[in-house]
């Protein structure tokens, strides 16, 4: 069962169970969309070790009912988590937490793909690095007229 609180809280209710239930409440006053709040809570729980590789997440419909949000909202969070390599979905068997290494591997691959694409557009490595620093908010890009 999910409990009400004003902030994101991620705990496993029953570690002995194959289904890990989140203690999470959507903050409806937040500027962050509900699917993103849920996605962040699951990522955080995984990073903190609350969720272990192989833990099964609640079914989409069950979690939507518990959180009193639309089924599509939970489905979108799960879809984004799967795309990021945080979870794997096995049809009717459910959605499961992946090992942290799987996400790191995917992140490295995406980074390598990005660098290759930028080089393919003719950018040099220092330019690519400057763009990354800008995207991360570390520095401003100087535009020359």
| CATH class categorisation of the largest domain | Mainly Alpha
How many domains would you count in the coordinates? 2
Shape: elongated
Helix-strand category: mainly alpha
Q: Biggest sheet, strands in spatial order?
A: 1-2
Count helical runs: 5
- Poorly predicted regions are 1-20
Quaternary state of the chains: single chain
**For the report, how would you describe the main beta sheet?**
2 strands, antiparallel
SSE order: HHHEEHH
How would you summarize this macromolecular structure in one to three sentences?
With about 140 residues, this protein is mostly helical.
Please tell me about this protein's structure.
The chain has 145 residues and is mainly α. Helix content is 46%, strand content 4%. It has 5 helices and 2 strands, in the order αααββαα. The protein has helices at residues 34-47, 60-67, 71-83, 100-120, 125-135; strands spanning 87-89, 95-97. A two-stranded antiparallel sheet has the order 1-2. Helix 1 packs across helix 3 and helix 2 packs across helix 3. The radius of gyration is 19 Å and the shape is elongated. 19% of the residues are buried. Mean pLDDT is 81; it is low at 1-20. It comes from Rothia terrae. Keywords: DNA-binding, Transcription, Transcription regulation.
């Amino acid at each position: 069962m999910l409990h009400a609180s004003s902030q994101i809280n991620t705990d496993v209710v029953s570690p002995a169970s194959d289904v890990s239930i989140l203690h999470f409440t959507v903050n409806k006053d937040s500027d962050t969309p509900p699917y993103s709040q849920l996605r962040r809570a699951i990522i955080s729980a995984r990073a903190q070790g609350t969720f272990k590789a192989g833990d099964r997440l609640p079914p989409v419909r069950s979690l939507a009912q518990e959180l009193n949000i639309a089924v599509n909202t939970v489905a979108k969070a799960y879809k984004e988590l799967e795309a990021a390599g945080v979870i794997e979905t096995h049809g009717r068997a459910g959605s499961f937490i992946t090992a942290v290494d799987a996400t790191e591997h995917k992140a490295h691959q995406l980074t390598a793909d990005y660098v290759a694409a930028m080089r393919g557009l003719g950018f040099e490595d220092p330019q690519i690095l400057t763009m990354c620093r800008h995207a991360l908010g570390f520095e401003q890009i100087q535009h020359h007229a």
